[in-house]
Write a structure and sequence with these properties.
- By secondary structure, the chain is of the alpha/beta class.
- 42% of the residues lie in helices and 21% in strands.
- It has six helices and four strands, in the order βαβαβααβαα.
- A four-stranded parallel β-sheet has the order 2-1-3-4, with helices on both faces.
- The longest helix is centred in the last third of the chain and has 13 residues.
- The model has no long low-confidence stretch (mean pLDDT 84).
């Protein structure tokens, strides 16, 4: 099983460089693309860009009924997060701290 990301065209290449399978969608087609990804039974985890689909679990309640996989993970759109001059290092530091419970300094 694979890890997939449902995202926009601008950020898809970054996910692909990280070794993930990226599916590109526009906001109006995001729900149907996510449904296709779920029904393909190829993914253990699908990360969904919030700017495309703010609540992927709610959008796919019917198709996910009775399924354990894939796990749907909602991700903030990084372009939106940092377009207003946000601090990328602080954002990553907070993300790491929330995930593993402490800071890592490199």
């Amino acid at each position: 099983m694979k890890i997939g990301v449902l995202t926009d065209a601008e950020t898809a290449s970054g996910y692909r460089m990280a070794g993930l399978e990226a599916v590109v969608a526009a906001p109006e087609e995001a729900a149907s693309k996510l449904t296709e990804m779920i029904q393909s039974n190829q993914y253990a985890l699908v990360a969904v860009d919030q700017s495309l689909l703010p609540d992927p679990n709610k959008a796919t309640e019917r198709v996910m009924r009775g399924r354990n996989a894939p796990v749907l993970l909602s991700l903030p759109n990084l372009l939106d997060t940092f377009s207003g001059g946000g601090d990328a290092k602080a954002y990553m530091r907070q993300l790491v701290r929330e995930t593993i419970g402490f800071d890592i300094k490199l």
